[in-house]
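Sample 3 of the quickstart, ligand protoporphyrin IX containing FE:
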Amino acid sequence: MEFITICFSSFLLLCIIFLFTSSVHGRRKSLPLPPGTLGWPYIGETFQLYSQNPNVFFASKVKKYGSIFKTHVLGCRCVMISSPAAAKLVLVTKSHLFKPTFPASKERMLGKQAIFFHQGDYHFKLRRLVLRAFTPESIRSIVPDIDSIAVDSLRSWENRLINTFQEMKTFTFNVALLSIFGHDEVLYREDLKRCYYILEKGYNSMPINLPGTLFHKSMKARKELAQILARILSLRRETKKEHNDLLGSFMEEKEGLSDEQIADNIIGVIFAARDTTASVMTWIIKYLAENPTVLQAVTQEQEGIMKEKEVKGLTWVDTKKMPITSRVIQETLRVASILSFTFREAVEDVEFEGYLIPKGWKVLPLFRNIHHSPENFTDPEKFDPSRFEVAPKPNTFMPFGNGVHSCPGNELAKLEILVVIHHMTTKYRWSMIGPQNEIHYAPFALPQNGLPIRIFPKNQL
Ligand code: HEM
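Result:
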């Protein structure tokens, strides 16, 4: 009798669960898709997006359909969102329903086990290891090294016509290596540079792995990079010294990362750290040149720090006394919004603000639209660092993303930018050469032609 009762109640429970899930499922299926158009078969609206500044495309869609709309680009059905609350939902509150997604070619080049492509336990573990190496406590000890890399870089630019972005990329590459390998980096810098520079050329290439193609050359360079890393790993294992850098964090015995996992994540961090920070620095150089009063205020602040010092060379404490310069960085991150958006993919049918986002559709939080909306920032096109004297409204300022995948390198990025601005403004002046009006997307937003400038020591003017 007892057995029959158990069977019956289990059956009843199953029926209830089935009825409930199918009604939720049915309700979801009957929800409308967000407004918008999917364009032509196969090509969708890819041409409209890429034949103009992509932000014009986004802005016109937001104007027509509101803060959530559907489209079809690069072979993917997408939902784009531009309200702070919706971005928070996708990136933070319901992040388990939206997994990160990248083109397969990028995954092959960076390495399948890199942090960006994962969710759950493995991602959590990697994130802890990466964050540990980039906390303020960990990076404060490398300020003198960053300082000397900056001084050497600036000296090599003196009285030359330089491509700001290219030079900043060299600087940020050297800082990335320092934060990953500590002082070991000088031993391997040239080899790592040679391989990484070939690898990066293939990031946006067609994934055709035949001799002679960019993709093939990149994959070969990637292999060589992994071999160099294997040499560094075995040397460190032999010497058994403790290291405070990212590699040291990855190599901790109990963490049990394989050599392949370490290689994928080292290459991944260089990729995440380099062009992003270099393009923000390039924008700062442009905005300072275009805004003489801001340049003067920053110069005064930085000269004040120089005067106070008895010993030469910046310290961590000095970098904490730069509120005006820090606001210039914030405002640059907002106006330039170098990462206009990010990608996620719905892992199941999701009900979202009364609409259906079907499983497999891409979801793009549009950072730039949020940063440029007059609802969030008054007179949004104006470069005005003083607006950050008051904290922005919650979830309206996300240059480093939000939630479980937000940028673990943001403290290092801000630190290296502060150090460069310190030396640029106290010792140099620069003039921009050629037209400056266009923005290039490569894929980060960049001033036209990487901002050619001529740079002079102040004492020669
Ligand atoms: C100004 C420079 C930088 C900007 C604007 C920036 C921006 C971002 C953004 C928006 C994300 C989140 C992407 C998403 O949610 O899809 C991100 C993730 C990431 N960033 Fe940065 N970043 C910068 C510099 C750096 C640096 C210097 C490092 C390393 C030292 C770094 C390492 C990473 C890593 C590893 C991730 C992936 C985190 C994860 O998936 O859990 N970034 N970054």
